[in-house]
Design brief:
224 residues; alpha/beta; 6 helices; 45% helix; 17% strand; globular
């Protein structure tokens, strides 16, 4: 018997794909939302009937709403949502960076995440469900001139505010805050850092906590 249904944004690779694999292994159904339709279709073929491909852009609220409606229809409801989609900057810094690249990053890291919250909230409220947000170690420290880090400070603040709101109707909210993870987020391989599976384990840990407990934040750093 399924533990429930989990909606994942940014599901085509990295943390999102690893979380989908871990969740299905743990007994969840998963909805895989990402722009890369071919990648999520490949992942569905790997995971089988417990997975549903939901191609779309996280910055499009209507696309996320339609995806969640389709997911709920397929599996009978949605119990959890993981707002994981995000991006960094090719050129950091206030003077050096490209304002148009800032806009695109903020549109995904902030508005895309808010769209997930908005789209998932009705389903979660119906079931006392669980919302998870991908933050970052960069959202816990001041990094010189980091606009990306500031976007993650927003995520950290929002996670706490949502946790307070959701507890009023029996829901739970968890911030997942990783340090450097070896994912396509970086241009070069970083095999000595965290792996996506480490963060997927953190998501499953939070989801598996007894109903009496809300894991508000999981902060995971590379051991070195």
């Amino acid at each position: 018997m399924s533990k429930g249904t989990l909606f994942i944004t940014g599901a085509s690779s990295g943390i999102g794909a690893a979380t989908a694999r871990a969740a299905v292994k743990d007994g969840w159904n998963v909805g895989l939302f990402a722009r890369s339709e071919d990648k999520i279709e490949d992942l569905v073929r790997e995971l089988g009937d417990a997975a549903l491909a939901l191609p779309g852009d996280a910055t499009d609220l209507a696309a996320q709403q339609a995806a969640l409606e389709q997911l709920a229809e397929r599996f009978g409801g949605v119990d959890a949502a993981f707002a994981n989609a995000g991006r960094g900057l090719n050129t950091p810094g206030v003077l050096e960076g490209d304002p148009e690249e800032w806009r695109a990053m903020l549109d995904l890291n902030i508005m895309g995440l808010l769209h997930t919250v908005r789209a998932a909230y009705p389903y979660l409220k119906e079931r006392g469900g669980h919302l998870l947000l991908t933050g970052s170690a960069a959202g816990r420290a001041h990094i010189p001139g980091s606009i990306y880090g500031a976007s993650k400070w927003f995520v950290h603040g929002l996670a706490g505010n949502l946790a307070e709101d959701m507890r009023g109707w029996g829901g739970r909210c968890t911030l997942i805050a990783p340090g450097m993870v070896n994912t396509p987020f970086f241009d070069t391989e970083k095999p000595d850092k965290l792996h996506p599976e480490d963060i997927a384990d953190a998501v499953i840990y939070a989801l598996s906590a007894d109903r009496r407990a809300t894991v508000r934040e999981v902060f995971v750093m590379p051991s070195d």
